[in-house]
């Protein structure tokens, strides 16, 4: 097998290269990629130009694939490959995509284990804005002072789509607002996720509305401070897209967001997801 990984930053990110393009589609590559995603949080495959069939094949080889959008979106061709776009001809309900401008994790409010990974292929790169940013909540947790780690033990947060869309709620047309904000479930998750392998990450981002049992202002302030901590440059990475770039990230140990872009840029990303294997556990 001849695929190679090169670190991008100390705590986050690897760039993937290959001797022969076919090398990334082998079962050995799928295994190596899965391990690297868990280790490095974000993998970038520069200008690999995957077709949907190739993206689905990689997704399933690392996989299995899972669909997040069954209940959350109506898209003219809502298939296993979700088109992330503000083009209303394809995506008549842009709220879900506008919500990606804020730090979040995918699939936190659906009735299944959070997806292990999200995979994006860049079909049309925006000329302005539209980078994607990632923040490792493994590295961020690890870097917290010991007494702060202890203060988080046993805490839970309540998550909802309503909370994640609160920054844009008043911009949603009134006739859609109630339905859009009601998407998904209201779920409580431990703030610190102790994974089966013993590593710990944080389950934070805009879906987290408040800390269960804590005064609302104090709990919200804690959530904002943790998200800011995780987003500091040492633990985060910004990817500027070129057409054909493909990125896989560990959704169980990272928040992500898009830098705002305008629909006039034509930005188009094709998204797939890999099923999670573990519910969030303390
Ligand atoms: C998503 C998402 C980020 C981006 O599709 O879930 O967060 O940069 N996308 O488009
Ligand atoms: Mn997302």
Automatic annotation (TrEMBL):
InterPro entries: TauD-like_sf, TauD/TfdA-like, TfdA_dioxygenase. The keyword Ribonucleoprotein does not apply. Keywords: Dioxygenase, Iron, Metal-binding, Oxidoreductase. GO terms for molecular function: dioxygenase activity. Residues 22-272 form the TauD/TfdA-like domain. The keyword Oxidoreductase applies. Pfam families: TauD. Belongs to the TfdA dioxygenase family. This is TauD/TfdA family dioxygenase. It comes from Novosphingobium mangrovi (ex Huang et al. 2023).
């Amino acid at each position: 097998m001849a695929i190679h990984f090169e670190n991008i930053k100390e705590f986050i990110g690897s760039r993937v290269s290959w001797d022969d393009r076919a090398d990334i589609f082998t079962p050995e590559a799928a295994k190596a990629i899965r391990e690297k995603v868990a280790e490095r949080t974000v993998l970038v495959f520069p200008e690999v130009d995957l077709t949907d069939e190739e993206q689905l094949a990689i997704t399933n080889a690392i996989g299995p694939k899972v669909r997040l959008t069954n209940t959350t979106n109506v898209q003219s061709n809502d298939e296993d490959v979700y088109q992330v776009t503000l083009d209303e001809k394809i995506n008549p309900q842009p709220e879900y995509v506008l919500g990606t401008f804020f730090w979040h994790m995918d699939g936190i409010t659906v009735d299944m284990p959070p997806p292990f990974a999200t995979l994006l292929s860049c079909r049309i790169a925006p000329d302005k804005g539209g980078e994607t940013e990632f923040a490792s909540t493994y590295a961020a947790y690890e870097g917290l002072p010991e007494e702060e780690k202890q203060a988080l033990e046993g805490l839970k947060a309540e998550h909802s789509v309503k909370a994640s869309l609160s920054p844009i709620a008043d911009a949603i047309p009134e006739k859609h607002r109630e339905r859009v904000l009601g998407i998904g479930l209201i779920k409580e998750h431990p703030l610190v996720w102790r994974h089966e392998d013993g590593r710990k990450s944080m389950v934070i981002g805009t879906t987290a509305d408040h800390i269960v049992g804590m005064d609302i202002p104090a709990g919200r302030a804690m959530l904002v401070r943790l998200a800011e901590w995780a987003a500091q440059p040492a633990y985060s990475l910004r990817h500027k897209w070129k057409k054909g770039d493909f990125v896989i990230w560990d959704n169980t140990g990272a928040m992500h967001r898009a830098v705002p872009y305008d629909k006039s840029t034509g930005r188009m990303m094709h998204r797939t997801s890999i099923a999670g294997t573990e519910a969030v556990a303390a």
